Amino acid sequence: MSKVHSWGRLGEYNHDVEVLRDRALAPRQIQGGTPGLAFGMGRSYGDSCLNPDGKLWKTPGLDKLIRFDPEKGRLVCEAGVLLRDIQRVFVPQGWMLPVTPGTQMVTVGGAIANDVHGKNHHVFGSFGDQVHSILLARTDGEVLRASVDENPDWLSATIGGLGLTGVVLEAELQLRKVDSPWLDAETLPYESLNEFFELAGASEAAWEHTVSWIDCMNTREARGIFMRANHVCGSLGTGPMPSGKKKTMPFVPPVSLVNKLSLAPFNQLYFYLNKWKAGHSRVHYEPFNYPLDNLLEWNRMYGPRGFYQYQSVVPFAGAREAIRGQLDEIRRSGQGSFLAVLKTFGDRQPRGLLSFPMPGVTLALDFPNRGQRTLELFKRLDSIVREAGGRIYPAKDARMPAELFEAGYPKLHEFLTYRDPGISSAMSRRLMGY
Amino acid sequence: MPKRIVIIGATSAIAQQCARLWAAEGASDFILVGRNADKLEAIAQDLQVRSPEVTTHTETCDFTDPIAITNLASALAEQGPLDILLVAHGTLPDQQACQNDLTIARDAMLINGLSPAYFAEAFVGKMQNQTSGSLVVIGSVAGDRGRQSNYVYGAAKGLVERYAQGLEHRLADTRINLTLVKPGPTQTPMTAHMEGQDKMAPLEQVAGDIVRGVKAKKPRRRARLVN
Ligand SMILES: Cc1cc2nc3c(=O)[nH]c(=O)nc-3n(C[C@H](O)[C@H](O)[C@H](O)COP(=O)(O)OP(=O)(O)OC[C@H]3O[C@@H](n4cnc5c(N)ncnc54)[C@H](O)[C@@H]3O)c2cc1C
Ligand SMILES: NC(=O)c1ccc[n+]([C@@H]2O[C@H](COP(=O)([O-])OP(=O)(O)OC[C@H]3O[C@@H](n4cnc5c(N)ncnc54)[C@H](OP(=O)(O)O)[C@@H]3O)[C@@H](O)[C@H]2O)c1
């Protein structure tokens, strides 16, 4: 048994860890016995990647690329391959993953299981929209291929399926063409939520990447920085390379370094830093898309009690009130975080039965774990989300009530028929009974 | 001209990572040697997808058979000079099992000690007249001293070190560079069952050190010890 934690470090749990390395042997390794769960890079914050006292099948050893079709830009690879490695291999060849989350240290299997989104949802949708086919191993020994043409229902169940439909062994992904690793980016400070909504609306048509950081400590109006960017097309010169230097949080500090005192200045600092830099810049895709990846294990900063992330999405109708309501609650509680991201999703439906993205506005914040006080705040945020017809992102969740999960994911009952009885997670037991 | 790179024990995690780094550096022709054809084929595919400038061949061989090893070295040398030979295979035996059963001890010493020496010897003979080339053998810090927890493995790795030292001496007046790499505990399948994973060196770091070490061959051509 080894101790394993998820990204939020809310607790360490005993797991019987089995390493998968060979895609030919993996189907046998996962067969029979007590229920297990695939575990990629553990970049999920809550309990979706944990199976305390049960089996965990670690997948990053399934790291081989299998085939690439340079005509169509289609890559077949094993499910433990890191998105970082796909980018680094293919950017020099003129191809890139269309959709990546805010860290590239995640596996293909993890990206499928949470149907992750990036900053360009209005253009490319989510990760699942780029998946052409998968090879899925079930714990009864069956290995099935699912694609748009073959077993398409298994594909929709597995995209966003939280690892509960089987273990993805291989995936065929559609890449997109790029001319260079650089983006032309623009940074615009905003002073109110209304201004954010105006910027987001005005940027959709002409900008591929849009995202904003929001300062939730500010007592007057919500203020933040809106960032938008497009890939540099053609051979329009070059830009700066990212520095390869990695910094690590060397130890878990005995207390959370994120308290009310340190939070407000951090948020202000971030605001002014960017305000000062407002304008145009040319940036490499790595620092733009994955700003925290060079600060390895920054999650240790929150101390031994760990932290939560709360990420919701609410439909456009009523979004202003719902976002304002959430920000008010957070400010009043004095518990907000420096990592607050506000962005809009495009007007498209996801492929997965349990996919998180939907047309609307998503807000994501970190909260140091202060026990009951933090959970009470989440209850208040839940009721705003529920009222607005929104939902919570399971990849970030460790505590949402089952009733809110059911309300937010109307296709849950259909999904349950695709579950693999030999797979279970702390989250599935909490939200789906087993 | 693509680099010709022979990897013995090509399915080893450290060797695979080195191969990926070499593939990223430019045109290479890999000869991947191991005991399991399917595993070698999957690695060959992976390298080819990683770089369109890569070609691959796979060879299986009995790693304990001196004749088979000699024949393999001859066949490969006949096809042209080799730029890099990496000898990477090894296995970490259960020390207690070795004490209880001498056949296990023998097999462990054979695969970790004699077998790498056979490969190095067979290829040095073929490479020593080349105008350039690097020979890299993976030893271990476990070979520095005997410890009760792993002295069978340690003794075999110690043999590799002494052998490499002799070869290096012999190669002093040639243009062939010999590097003995001695990693400390590294996160690979070999150590996956052991406690303290987060104190072990990441695979990427160890492979990076090896690849840099080979590139920076010193004019003195001394065995470089990379810890
Ligand atoms: C700094 C940071 C920024 C982030 N930004 C974003 C963002 O912008 N957008 C976003 O959507 N997410 C974001 N995330 C969340 C992250 O992208 C997801 O949690 C992702 O799924 C993690 O992948 P992983 O490989 O670490 O999987 P894990 O966290 O290890 O596992 C996640 C789920 O995938 C399942 N799984 C893993 N491998 C397989 C497999 N082979 N077959 C079947 N199931 C499998 C697991 O069982 C589990 O249910 C961010 C996370 C961090 C730490
Ligand atoms: N990992 C560490 O902590 C560490 C530390 C110091 C030194 N080293 C050394 O580094 C080298 C690479 O090890 P690794 O960590 O990359 O281990 P690994 O991934 O477990 O690889 C071991 C390799 O040895 C091969 N092998 C084992 N027994 C064999 C046999 N009887 N015949 C043929 N091939 C055999 C394996 O082939 P199959 O794939 O066919 O099984 C595999 O290619 C080894 O020499 C090891 O001693 C490792």
* Helix-strand category of chain A: alpha+beta
Radius of gyration of chain A equals 21 Å
Spatially, the strands of the biggest sheet of chain A line up as 16-12-14-13-19-20-18-21
| Backbone shape of chain B | globular
Q: In CATH terms, what is the fold-level topology of chain B?
A: Rossmann fold
Superfamily (CATH H level) name of one domain in chain A: FAD-linked oxidases, C-terminal domain
CATH class of chain B: Alpha Beta
Query: What is the rounded distance between the termini of chain A?
Result: 22 Å
Strand content of chain B: 15-25%
Low-confidence stretches of chain A: none
Classify the helix fraction of chain A into a percent range. 25-40%
Spell the H/E element sequence of chain B: EHEHEHEHHEHEHE
CATH superfamily of chain B: NAD(P)-binding Rossmann-like Domain
Strand order of the largest sheet of chain B: 3-2-1-4-5-6-7
Topology, number of strands of chain B = 7
Highlighted features:
heterodimer; A: 434 residues; alpha+beta; Vanillyl-alcohol Oxidase, Chain A, domain 3; five-stranded antiparallel beta sheet; 13 helices; 21 strands; globular; B: 227 residues; alpha/beta; seven-stranded parallel beta sheet; 7 helices; disordered C terminus; binds flavin-adenine dinucleotide
